[in-house]
Amino acid sequence: METFAPTALKELVVTDSARGPECPAPEGGGLVRTLLCKLDGFAPLTEQDRAALVGLTGYARPIERHTVLAEQECVVDHALIVLAGFAGRSKRRASGRRQILAYLLPGDLCDRGALHGYPLDHAIETLSPCRIAKVPRAAYLDLLGRHPRIALAVQRARLAEEATAREWVANIGMRSGLERTAHLLCELLERLGSIGAVSDGQFDLPLTQMDPAETLGLSSVHVNRVLQALRRDGLISLRGHRLRILAPRRLSQLAEFEAGYL
Amino acid sequence: METFAPTALKELVVTDSARGPECPAPEGGGLVRTLLCKLDGFAPLTEQDRAALVGLTGYARPIERHTVLAEQECVVDHALIVLAGFAGRSKRRASGRRQILAYLLPGDLCDRGALHGYPLDHAIETLSPCRIAKVPRAAYLDLLGRHPRIALAVQRARLAEEATAREWVANIGMRSGLERTAHLLCELLERLGSIGAVSDGQFDLPLTQMDPAETLGLSSVHVNRVLQALRRDGLISLRGHRLRILAPRRLSQLAEFEAGYL
DNA sequence: CGGCGGTTTGAGCTAGTTCAATGTCCGTGG
DNA sequence: CCACGGACATTGAACTAGCTCAAACCGCCG
């Protein structure tokens, strides 16, 4: 169950490096680490591969919360790599109601824009302050061309993303509010764990309760009550934006969470 | 709005050719037509490409309703091409409750098994009697290798499938039962239209009300009532397994259905 | 004719919504 | 240092969409 990364854990690296423009990017590969970590998990990378990825840091910029990185209907011509913070894909109804379709966590990347010149069927926006690399199409294609292992890892990452999307359909479609929420937390634990952003079952959740609500197809009021129930039952503890999974086993049982598909 | 295929419509081709083992495959490319139709829509195919696809007919077999084509957790080593009937991806909970994750309609194909040797995160099963080609990995890879346009079309088809999956998350997550159902019908109209299986707003829906229910995260009782409401309001007519969209415009407005992403 | 698989209907119930008030934390300006 | 305001979290209370269970009904096939 415990899938924490074997590397030394730099606690809070996500938040304090995402705090804003005045905060300089940390030394060397401090943030690309998430990307390296994640891609390496899909296909082992060589030193050259890693160096090339570290080189992408030049494209990184701090970005405020609730910034739209790519509008629906728009053709984008760069790849996005999340280095810190939470971003997400989302759709909006005419009524204003929003549905979050996927989380983009540190190490995740999104290259639909760069690879295929299709207009996006959804928007991409930051859910928290983020540090994000916008890699121009040419540079990105060049990267993939020169580094087949990276290309492979990226392709596998896409498969994992598809699997997650299916998991979300199932989650929203056939689970109760409590179970859905538990499932989401399990997913976050696993995904953040795989990039070393979990320490002792604890991680930062730089979201508003509105975000899980729009993720899970629930009202924020209900999410609030569900979180209280999870706390009451001793499954989690949550103070501010710091979440701790107290009973991962029981939580994943409640959610029928299947680890391993990433 | 009307995206009906320009080719001559062979009404009922889906059902009568999917009826069962005793029913011989129709003359020539009668059923691959759907595949040709669909892929050609993504990337124009040459005569050689088409011939190669027609060649796949040899792998086609009639398959009964509710047959599991690929079990969850299993590694599959062939690509599946649906030539007639409805199949789908699905997940099941321990309680037995099922969620349908995607429909595989005639012309759709599913090559995760053949391309990457990963165990499936979901099952694939027929929802109606089908005619399906199981193409062995080697033959499939060979096909893609020799026919780059087919490979391109397949890749684009995958993008469209991903977009559909996102649409489903949004559908289940933020729409009411009525809207969800309307949206699903719009999707079916569009997808079946693109393979010429819609005639005069009418198409075969070889499903039980349980299937839409498990698709939309509703109970079959509720789906029943929703369908009645749609009929009452003159949006659709439904007799047996024959569905007619009477007011496509109003229906897609109700569902906030965005055509065009396929 | 009888039965099976599916649809339809009814009635009661509950998970989750909506709306609105209240509480809490935190940053800002005086 | 404190008052103020804004953004979130929490609570309460009324309401409702959709669920469950169970009975009837319908069409089809053997």
Automatic annotation (TrEMBL), chains A, B:
<dbReference type="GO" id="GO:0003677">
    <property type="term" value="F:DNA binding"/>
</dbReference>
<dbReference type="InterPro" id="IPR036388">
    <property type="entry name" value="WH-like_DNA-bd_sf"/>
</dbReference>
<dbReference type="Pfam" id="PF13545">
    <property type="entry name" value="HTH_Crp_2"/>
</dbReference>
<dbReference type="Pfam" id="PF00027">
    <property type="entry name" value="cNMP_binding"/>
</dbReference>
<dbReference type="GO" id="GO:0005829">
    <property type="term" value="C:cytosol"/>
</dbReference>
<dbReference type="InterPro" id="IPR012318">
    <property type="entry name" value="HTH_CRP"/>
</dbReference>
<keyword id="KW-0238">DNA-binding</keyword>
<keyword id="KW-0804">Transcription</keyword>
<dbReference type="GO" id="GO:0003700">
    <property type="term" value="F:DNA-binding transcription factor activity"/>
</dbReference>
<protein>
    <recommendedName>
        <fullName>HTH crp-type domain-containing protein</fullName>
    </recommendedName>
</protein>
<dbReference type="InterPro" id="IPR050397">
    <property type="entry name" value="Env_Response_Regulators"/>
</dbReference>
<feature type="domain" description="HTH crp-type">
    <location>
        <begin position="175"/>
        <end position="249"/>
    </location>
</feature>
<dbReference type="InterPro" id="IPR018490">
    <property type="entry name" value="cNMP-bd_dom_sf"/>
</dbReference>
<dbReference type="InterPro" id="IPR014710">
    <property type="entry name" value="RmlC-like_jellyroll"/>
</dbReference>
<dbReference type="InterPro" id="IPR000595">
    <property type="entry name" value="cNMP-bd_dom"/>
</dbReference>
<keyword id="KW-0805">Transcription regulation</keyword>
<dbReference type="InterPro" id="IPR036390">
    <property type="entry name" value="WH_DNA-bd_sf"/>
</dbReference>
